Amino acid sequence: MTALSFHSSHGSNIKLPDLQTACHSYARAQGIFMLATPLLVTSHFQLRFEGKGIVKLQALPTKDDAVAWLRSQKPLPKGCIRLRNCKSSVWKVRFDPSRDSVLFFNKDLGLQEARGGGMLLFDIEYGDVCVTAVTASLPEVLFDSFTHSKHIQIVRRAGCSSAQLKLFNPLGLCRLHSPVEKGQTLRLRVQGNKGHSGMGPYFRLRMTPCGANGHQKQFLLGPDTKYESDLYGVEASQRKELALTCCHGEQAGFVGLDTDDRTTEVKLTWPWSGGCFLWFELNKVSLRAWLLRDPNRPYLAGCSVHTTTRGTVRQRYGETRNATEINVRGALFEVCRDRGAGHT
Questions:
Q1: What is the value of pTM for the model shown?
Q2: Which residues of 58-81 are buried (b: 16+ CB within 10 A; e: fewer)?
Q3: What are the chain's domains?
């Protein structure tokens, strides 16, 4: 079993303490946007939240203060309003000049107050949350469509404007230093950070072709990859052991065993004939990777290989070719020798 290193090019919120461990830490805000103008006494509007994730809100005295904070890329301070797993909720918002604060009211969650002024600043920390401001008052309350984080998408129309991340976690991207090739089996160890639970810690996978430097640079800057693959949640302090089998032409089979011995299988499209770089999108987790199996090195330490002719498994997936069993510390993975995906 050979430890794999991560590439030195990665997102701003990724740290590589020893090149073989990638850790995510939210040090730079990636989803800040603001109102176009400060709120007035006559400003009454609704904030609607759709989706899952974390949104933070902070009130500042002037728009210049909000612009300066956005350009600094600092996360919003502790003590700001923090909405977690927003799902679907509606808040009534108004400005109270006597308290120099913005009041938020929700019939289920009650009243919350953001002190400091009438200029609202938002930060979508992660997730597919869409924030919408709806107003019937004059002047209209709209999001600023020119001053916001580059990963935020603003849509404005009469009496309504919305904002959301183009990616779930754009500054949490990293990739392995070397490309993965056909027939290789990787072992991943994902550790959830302490103090986070629910949807907070997660990771996602993405592939880019070898030799496409422009493609990789564009990907790191943040193209729209929101729907490329599913999120894989990790509970606080939980460790997941995962195996990834790389097969050309069809799909890469991804199989994981969590602490409850429940298996999860995910398919990723691999449309290229050559090798590919494996990317990870991390949020509040740390990651390590090892090479378990290589066609050019069939006897790597840490796994045992032997052939099998179990036709029932192959027929279930429509595969009639010979297969290879890999036993990794009690977890059984079956990998097709020829074209096809990995199965359990």
A1: 0.74
A2: bbbeebebbbebbeeeebbeeebb
A3: 2-26+171-294 (2.60.120.920), 32-165 (no CATH)
